[in-house]
Design a protein that fits this description.
The protein is 28% helix and 24% strand. It is an alpha+beta fold.
């Protein structure tokens, strides 16, 4: 896999972070408020060191219902402490008052008119401990983070998207070519997403390098780019929408190849077509090329050489990509694995 490149080319800032229950905290941000009445029960749930699917399985077994009867908006990290919202039929309200599990806690519950569906979230709030940070780097980290928040963060898929090693990427390519057959639909869909995501990341790297070369590190817009507006609609303006882009009303997007998807035109298409597979039968999408981290807070504890950085990202984006951009390096699962905190 090609290296992820970033717009901000600061010299490496030294810190380490670990995906553990104490160092990696994720809180789901819902789309809106829940009504307080209805036939569904919304549970605000805290889980520690377990996947969302494992948590759903625990609730399904406790209520004696199929897992499909439990709604959730998104998948949360296993090696972390996370909170998220799930929905169940309100008839289980009394039973759930007695629920107890050592890794799961129901923080609150309220009624709502409908269940939660995949994607029903605004974003996620992260709070991550960065270790071995000295006084000078603590200031640099905050400064760079705020600059990225203003100029935009390349919205790469993080290393988590691609499995534990690059074998999954080759397996995906072999499956698409028809050289291997995958019967399991979950594995097949996973490999297709890897295939699409690899193209997207490689395209975004090209755009970042072009921006550094020709636009002083600020994302370079091209004629024919496809933009997403605040309502989620896509368009290709005839005139370069510089003002709406700078005010974040329009965001340039990149292609996740497949059928029935809006493709770029003109200059933007010439670059995009190098990272496209027009024969892929699965549905295609467009993904924001840039995102803007919000509400950045930093708390430094000199005695512990620890900086806690908190920020909010839109759904589908990766906290580890934000940290990569600050550090100007790429991470792997091995880099953030829980271990003795040594340099």
């Amino acid at each position: 896999m090609r290296k992820r490149e970033y717009l901000d080319t600061t010299t490496d800032i030294g810190f380490k972070f670990y995906q553990t229950k104490d160092d990696f905290i994720v809180d789901e941000v819902p789309v809106g408020e829940f009504k307080g009445k209805g036939n569904f029960l919304i549970l605000h749930v805290k889980k520690v060191e377990m996947t969302t699917w494992d948590m759903i399985a625990v609730f399904a077994e406790y209520m004696a219902v199929p897992a499909q009867k439990i709604g959730y908006a998104g998948l949360k990290d296993k090696h972390a402490t996370t909170t998220q919202y799930i929905s169940v039929d309100a008839s289980y309200e009394k039973l759930l008052k007695k629920f107890h599990h050592k890794q799961i806690k129901i923080l609150s519950s309220q009624r709502h008119s409908h269940g939660i569906r995949m994607g029903d979230l605004s974003g996620n709030r992260f709070s991550i401990n960065l270790h071995f940070v000295d006084n000078i780097d603590a200031g640099r980290i905050e400064k760079v983070a705020r600059r990225i928040s203003k100029n935009g963060l390349p919205n790469y898929f993080g290393y988590q998207r691609f499995g534990r090693d690059n074998d999954s990427i080759q397996q995906a390519k072999d499956m698409i070519k028809g050289e291997i057959f995958i019967e399991d639909s979950k594995i097949k869909n996973f490999l297709i997403s890897i295939y699409q995501s690899t193209f997207f990341n490689d395209w975004l790297r090209e755009r970042v390098e072009l921006s550094r070369e020709k636009n002083d590190g600020k994302f370079l817009l091209l004629e024919g780019d496809v933009y997403k507006d605040e309502k989620g609609k896509f368009s290709t303006p005839k005139i370069m929408p510089t003002r709406d882009y700078e005010s974040q009303k329009l965001v340039p997007t990149g292609l996740l190849c497949g059928r029935d998807v809006f493709r770029a035109r003109d200059e933007a298409r010439k670059l995009e077509e190098n990272f496209d597979d027009e024969f892929l039968q699965e549905k295609g999408y467009r993904r924001e090329a840039l995102i803007y981290p919000k509400d950045i807070e930093c708390k430094y504890v000199k005695k512990e050489t620890k900086l806690t950085i908190s920020f909010t990202l839109p759904k589908g984006s990766y906290a580890t990509v934000f940290l990569e951009s600050i550090a100007n390096k790429n991470y792997t699962a091995k880099d953030v694995k829980a271990k003795t905190k040594q340099r």
